[in-house]
Amino acid sequence: MATLAGDFHRSPAYVGLADALKELIGDGRIGYGTRLPSERELTAALGVSRTTVTRAYAVLRDTGYAEARHGSGTFTRLPGGPTRAHDRALWPTHVSGGVIDLVCAAATAPPGMAAAYAEAAAALPAHLGNHGYYPAGLPDLQAAIASSYDDRGLPTDPEQIIVTTGALAASAVVGAALVGPRERVLMESPTYPNAVQALKTGGGRLVTIPLDPSGWDLDAVGQVLAKHGPRLVHVMPDHHNPTGLVMTEDERAAYARLLSRHGATALVDEAHHTLRLDDDPPLPPFATFSPDAITVGSVSKSIWGGLRMGWIRAPHNLVDTLTRARVGLDLGAPVLEQVLLTQLIGSGLETMLAVHRERLREQRDALVAALHEELPDWTFRVPVGGMALWCHLPSDPPAGATALVIEAERHGVMLAPGPSFAPAGGLDRYLRFPFTVPVPQLQEAVRRVADAWRAVYGTGPASSAVPRRRGGVLVA
Fold this sequence. Notes:
single chain; alpha/beta; three-stranded antiparallel beta sheet; globular
């Protein structure tokens, strides 16, 4: 606990310690029902006064994050009960019983999130004197997001920003505005499956192009553009989901020239662009080479999925069209979250990103090592960023990823097979393996998947099965 909570703010110290412990308990790093160290033990470990720990524990009990058991000590709990623990999954029913959910490629909130919400709530009264509807976003937030593009070398006016409830909502706005029933939208395969549905909001027809595991085939892109004449082309140049690919600067420029030649507009999905885990320098935004491009961004992947905040950066001539389409879907993002994101961009965002990236880097490397150890026949590229490995399964034996996923669920691991990411079908030799949970869980997940692999293909005994949960999947 001293290692996890040692960097708490100390003004006053007992509040900082209580806030740090709430986050650790809330996101499962300190498990539900865990006996906390005694006040004397924690005082010694942290080098603080006994009064600081006593008052922090009192705050935990008063707010429902701990309970005292006579003669036994202080134990963690949650205000909403045990089902709130490890609430990382986007499943329609509760996932429990030791199941490791790796369908949802999303991490827990970084340290400092609870304090950031508290700071935003304190600033909220200044916004309560008006109607609270901001179809394009709070002006201060528009300016802050625009400034972030300026810093990346892409000059942007605040009026070019439309704030949404996440990148997926932003894509739905673009689909509703620009892709009607007789128009085509081009998407890569594999791709993020929810984006497919979002871009079909306006009734557009889907055209797919294969994305090779080694990168983009721009000659093939040019041929498809010439043949089908899509109005909109969905592109993920940074840490592509699920492959992890990154488009080079030359590829961005060449792709932009193809789009211009064929009169197509790029919808650039930058939801993962901040998740650069290695030391490679950042690349210019795709829209630097394609002035007509529409870019969607988000902090849901780079910070926390519960912070449903995204945006559209649009050319000036499309802002009104997109804003009208947005009003047809909703009337604006929640003001509290907009205030929060404005404050984070002003200060604190880079610190959160650094912590998040360090955590993902450690988990990526642990997953790579575990797969090399347990499943050496699987192949994958080690991504320089993002949140998952795109694993290729051996071509022999004949069964593919779908059969493995079904068996893995019996062993207590939930994964998404390649066909989940293939709008036109196929890719059953591929599996997305996120590295978004702590290292011990990743290592255990690989052991269970290895057991499932042996069970499916008859090369060894299966370990004890975990009862399967039946129902639908929402891939995130």
